[in-house]
């Protein structure tokens, strides 16, 4: 599994404001979207393309275009929804599927409560969006679900990751041949006793959309 930490001053700048507890929800949503657009540039380095013949006003030449089938973008609800616009701005022709997952705050295990995805993902390149890779349980379950449906190339895009989550993901994917890469804005220090990323940014879903309970 490849892990790419997007090292760019604009990414670090936007992440700092996301981390700041004084940042309100509207600003947090805007920053998450902007940050995703920057991460999308890194995350799509391996997007599948094919040669494309065109004529410029001067001569015939060969360019490239996105291959078919188009990539599938899968935000993990709720918080991954805050990254969707930033991603499809760069990949407007991508299809979008949804996975709803919630982490049990006591056991820290992820429960899948919704999925709206094509049944057959054979040969599909998939970009999974979730701002937080904490224990890695949600992302690991999501990736296995996609691989079971046939996805054959997966990029997980996160705003923040914990070393524990990366290690868990690596271990849980050890027996698969499907290439998986993680693109993240930063790898933080650790998880705390409640499974939150430290220093982190708190509960991403709550900061985007407010508390639900
Ligand atoms: C958060 C976050 C990830 C998950 C990460 O979602 O958006 O999906 O926790 O934790 P993990 O790596 O330990 O699995 P949450 O369950 O809070 O749901 P929400 O997006 O609806 O707020
Ligand atoms: N989920 C979040 O939203 N934040 C964390 O720090 C960990 C899991």
From TrEMBL:
Catalytic reaction(s) noted: UMP + diphosphate = 5-phospho-alpha-D-ribose 1-diphosphate + uracil
Cofactor(s) required, per the database record: Mg(2+)
Keyword vocabulary terms for this entry: Allosteric enzyme, Glycosyltransferase, GTP-binding, Magnesium, Nucleotide-binding, Transferase
Domain of life, per lineage: Bacteria
Activity regulation as described: Allosterically activated by GTP.
Cofactor comment text: Binds 1 Mg(2+) ion per subunit. The magnesium is bound as Mg-PRPP.
Sequence ranges assigned to domain Phosphoribosyltransferase in this UniProt record: 5-211
GO molecular function: GTP binding; magnesium ion binding; uracil phosphoribosyltransferase activity
Residue stretches in coiled coil: none
InterPro entries, alphabetized: PRTase-like (IPR029057), PRTase_dom (IPR000836), Upp_B (IPR034332), UPRT (IPR005765), UPRTase/APRTase (IPR050054)
Pfam family, one: UPRTase
GO cellular component labels: cytoplasm
Sites where the protein binds 5-phospho-alpha-D-ribose 1-diphosphate: 78, 103, 130-138, 203
Pathway participation: Pyrimidine metabolism; UMP biosynthesis via salvage pathway; UMP from uracil: step 1/1
Binding site for uracil: 197, 202-204
The EC number(s) this enzyme carries: 2.4.2.9
Function as written in the Swiss-Prot or TrEMBL entry: Catalyzes the conversion of uracil and 5-phospho-alpha-D-ribose 1-diphosphate (PRPP) to UMP and diphosphate.
PANTHER family linked: ADENINE PHOSPHORIBOSYLTRANSFERASE (PTHR32315), URACIL PHOSPHORIBOSYLTRANSFERASE, CHLOROPLASTIC (PTHR32315:SF4)
Recorded family membership: Belongs to the UPRTase family.
Protein name per the record: Uracil phosphoribosyltransferase
Species classification: Bacteria, Bacillati, Actinomycetota, Actinomycetes, Micrococcales
């Amino acid at each position: 599994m490849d892990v790419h930490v997007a090292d760019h001053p604009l990414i670090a700048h936007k992440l700092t404001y996301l981390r700041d507890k004084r940042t309100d929800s509207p600003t947090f949503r805007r920053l998450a979207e902007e940050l995703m657009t920057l991460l999308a540039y890194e995350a799509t380095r391996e997007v599948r393309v094919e040669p494309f013949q065109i004529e410029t006003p001067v001569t015939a030449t060969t360019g490239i275009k996105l291959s078919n089938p188009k990539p599938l973008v899968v935000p993990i609800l709720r918080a991954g929804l805050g990254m969707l616009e930033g991603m499809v701005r760069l990949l407007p022709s991508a299809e979008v599927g949804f996975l709803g997952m919630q982490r049990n705050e006591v056991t820290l295990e992820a429960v899948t409560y919704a999925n709206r995805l094509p049944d057959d993902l054979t040969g599909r390149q998939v970009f999974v969006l979730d701002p937080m890779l904490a224990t890695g349980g949600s992302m690991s379950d999501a990736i296995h679900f996609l691989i079971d449906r046939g996805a054959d190339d997966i990029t997980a895009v996160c705003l923040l990751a914990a070393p524990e989550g990366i290690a868990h993901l690596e271990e849980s994917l050890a027996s698969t041949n499907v290439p998986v890469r993680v693109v993240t804005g930063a790898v933080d220090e650790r998880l705390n006793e409640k499974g939150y990323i430290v220093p982190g940014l708190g509960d991403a879903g709550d900061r985007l959309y407010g508390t639900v309970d």
